[in-house]
Amino acid sequence: MQALTTRAKQVQRKPLSWVERIYLWNIFKGMLITFSHIFKKQPTIHYPEQKRTFSPVFRGLHVLNRDEEGRERCTACGLCAVACPAEAITMEAAERMQGEEHLYREEKYAAKYEINMLRCIFCGLCEEACPKDAIYLSETFTPSDFTRESFIYGKENLLIPDPVKQPEAFAKARGLN
Ligand code: SF4
Ligand code: SF4
Q1: Does the CB atom of residue 89 touch ligand 2 within 6 A?
Q2: What are the chain's domains?
Q3: Phi and psi dihedrals of 127, rounded to 5?
Q4: Pocket mutation for ligand 2, best pick of 77, 84, 90, 126 (most atoms within 8 Å of C-beta)
Q5: Are the beta carbons of 175 and 139 closer than 8 angstroms?
Q6: What are phi and psi for residue 35, nearest 5 degrees?
Q7: Which residues sit opposite 112 in a β-bridge?
Q8: Residue 57 and residue 141: Cα distance in Å, rounded?
Q9: Contact status, residue 75 vs residue 94, Cβ threshold 8 Å
């Protein structure tokens, strides 16, 4: 009984003073922290107006490359798809017809070339595996979207603009201007 009374005495708290009850000191401390952050360097940036400098080893969105005459370099050999650990690449090969020499660099080309960006882990192995310098990973993010299907990028999304017909768009895509 004696022990219980002693414990009850120990937990008895001193009543708060008027100043403590209005939390003035705590409010002041909180405001002090808030104002101290005004003068600190902001860790965030105003994207997309401002962009961070990428690391030299950054790997972003894929680009299907053309040669200096604007012909598609890809020969649909499939080595990139074999190297891809995420099984993100699919393609269909086709034979180049007579009169199409200005479109495709070699006798075979990719009639269909698709990358599933939801599967891709941006490892860059497809770029390393390609013997034709036909694919590389750029410094561009994959844009956000609303449906899963829209993340399957075909040739219309991946092919770099033609350097002969669209020199400005080509230079922009290569980061030359
Ligand atoms: S970057 Fe890697 S995961 Fe993505 S498509 Fe290329 S090989 Fe596959
Ligand atoms: S991108 Fe390169 S590795 Fe892939 S199919 Fe085309 S030529 Fe072959």
Answers
A1: no
A2: 62-173 (3.30.70.3270)
A3: -65, -45
A4: 77
A5: yes
A6: -70, -30
A7: 92
A8: 14
A9: no
Q: CB 89: neighbour CB atoms within 10 A?
A: 21
Summarize pLDDT for 43-89 with one digit per residue, the tens: 888 888 888 888 889 999 999 999 999 999 999 999 999 999 999 99
With a cut of 60, say whether residue 176 has pLDDT above it.
Answer: no
Residue 62 CA, ligand 1 centroid: distance in Å: 9
Q: Is the pTM of this model over 0.70?
A: yes
pLDDT digits (tens, 9 = 90+) for 93-116: 999 999 999 999 999 999 999 999
Q: How far is the CA of 103 from the centre of ligand 1 (A)?
A: 26
Task: Say what the pLDDT of residue 41 is.
Answer: 87
Listed in sequence order, the residues at least 6 apart from 19 whose beta carbon sits closer than 8 Å to its beta carbon are: 25
Ligand 2 centre to CA of 124 (Å) is 13
Task: Give residue-wise pLDDT tens across range 113-155.
Answer: 999 999 999 999 999 999 999 999 998 887 889 999 999 999 9
Indicate whether residue 155 lines ligand 2 (CB < 6 A): no
Residue closest to 136 by CA, chosen among 111, 173, 167, 168: 173
Coil vs helix vs strand at 94: strand
